[in-house]
Amino acid sequence: MSSRGPDRPRGRPTEGRPSIKSLFNGGEPARVRGRAQFNLRKRLALVVGTLGLCSVALIGRALDLQVISNEFYREQGDARALRDIPIPTSRGMITDRNGEPLAVSTPVESVWGNPQELLKHPQRLPELAQALGTPADELARKLSQRADKEFFYLKRRINPDEAQAILAHKIPGVFSQREYRRFYPQGEALAHVLGFTNIDDRGQEGLELAFDDWLRGKPGSKRVIRDGAGRIVESVDLVSAAQPGGDLTLTIDRRIQFLAHRELRNALQRTGANAGSAVVLDVETGEVLAMANLPTYNPNAVASTPVDHRRNRAVTDVIEPGSTMKPLTVAAGLEAGVITPTTLFNTNPGWIANGRYRTTDHHNYGVLDTTGVIQKSSNVASAMIVHKLEDRFFFDFLARFGYGRKPGSGFPGESSGVLAPPEKWWGTTKQGMSYGYGLSATPLQIAMAYAALANGGRLLTPTFVKGERSEERQVLDPAIAAHVMAMMRTVTQTGGTATQGAILGYHVAGKTGTARKFNASGGYSRRYVSFFAGVVPVANPRFSMVVVVNDPDPAKGYFGGLVSAPVFKNVMEGALRLMDVAPDDIDTWLAAQAEAEAKRLKANGGKPVAGAPVLPVTATARVTTATAVLPALPAPVPEAAP
Question: Locations of Basic and acidic residues compositional bias (predicted)?
Answer without folding.
Answer: 1-15
